Amino acid sequence: MVLELRPNCEYCDKDLPPSSTDAMICTYECTFCCDCVDVLSNVCPNCGGGFAPRPIRPKTAWRPGLSLSHQPASEIRVHSSKDRGEVEKFLSKIKNISPEDR
């Protein structure tokens, strides 16, 4: 199974191309930019987990069949279904709990 590599931040809609070092993901591949991860206190507003840098898929197939051209990034933009008020309320409950203890 290959990571989806979503094209945008789900919170602010910033473009996050496959080579972006600004892309962060949670365990469910929810995708946010570093700035929004800071605003969200490292809490995914969808699942409550923490974030890690999204890996960059190689452009070159250094091994046969393994590259961005073989497993392209998604072009489907994803947007959070939660409004800002709901996110703030959710964050206030768990943002002071470290990700490994949530």
Q: Could you characterize what this model shows?
A:
- With 102 residues, this protein is of the alpha+beta class.
- The protein has one domain.
- Helices cover 17% and strands 8% of the residues.
- It is built from 2 helices and 3 strands.
- It has a 3-stranded antiparallel beta sheet with strand order 2-1-3.
- β1 (23-25) and β2 (31-33) form a beta hairpin.
- It is elongated and about 45 Å long.
- The two termini are 26 Å apart.
- The mean pLDDT is 97.
What is the 3D form?
elongated
Question: Low-confidence runs (pLDDT<50, min 5 residues)?
Answer: none
Question: What is the rounded distance between the termini?
Answer: 26 Å
Overall average pLDDT? 97
Give the total of beta strands: 3
Task: Tell me which oligomeric state these chains represent.
Answer: single chain
Give, in spatial order, the strands making up the sheet with the most strands.
Answer: 2-1-3
Per DSSP, what share of the residues sits in E-state strands of 2 or more residues?
A: 5-15%
